[in-house]
Amino acid sequence: MVEILCQVSLAMSYLHDNRFIHRDLAARNILVRHTGTRECPPVPCPPITVKVADFGRARDLNEDDIYVQATDRPIPVRWTSPEALMNAKFWDKKCDVWSFGVLIYEIVTKSINNPYDCGSKKYTDKQVKEMVPVRGIKIRPPPNCSKFLGSLMEDCLQFDPQPRPTFTEILHKLLSSEFVTDDFLVGRFFINKTVSLKVYYLLIRGVKD
């Protein structure tokens, strides 16, 4: 689970480093592929490769690190940050970080319910849009969530966008956790030859040395 989040945060860090925001980060837009052993180099590697997909809502940022939406379009309400729900015309990197917090919830709960729904209690997107920015209600770590992931989820789901961590900081935290194995680090080092390899290598050295 944590190793999946490592790969997602690496992809999002690469995206943000290149001044793009995704604006629709959710479990439905994460591709999971079983790597197996035949394609691996002669070193241990993770059995699952994860890729962030569906860039239909992705946009590049202006010089102020903001994307200004010119037209009204539907938004993924349950994954959208409160500031974007209040004003859907202005988006930045911190909006993606909020979505990552919701993604953690989806992965931990295996998407049994949509975010904010609980068992038979269902909410419409209109209700969620009022609950989050107006009434200050947000999803909480589920009971089966580890303390580590629960803390990370809470960090990402802060109503004030400024204290939310960057994806580089999220990746640092994930890599330094006890849940990430050396086999995973070595395997990802050799597989990710084209995606921010130098950054990833420095992160590994900085955390594990």
Automatic annotation (TrEMBL):
The gene that this protein is the product of is Insr
Is tRNA processing among this UniProt entry's keywords? no
> What is one process in the GO biological process aspect for this record?
cell surface receptor protein tyrosine kinase signaling pathway
| The organism's place on the tree of life at top rank | Eukaryota
Q: Name one GO cellular component term.
A: receptor complex
Can you give the residue ranges of the Protein kinase domain? Answer: 1-175
Which keywords fit this entry according to its UniProt record?
Receptor
Pfam families from the UniProt entry = PK_Tyr_Ser-Thr
SUPFAM superfamilies listed in its UniProt record: Protein kinase-like (PK-like)
Single GO MF descriptor: ATP binding
Protein known as: Insulin receptor
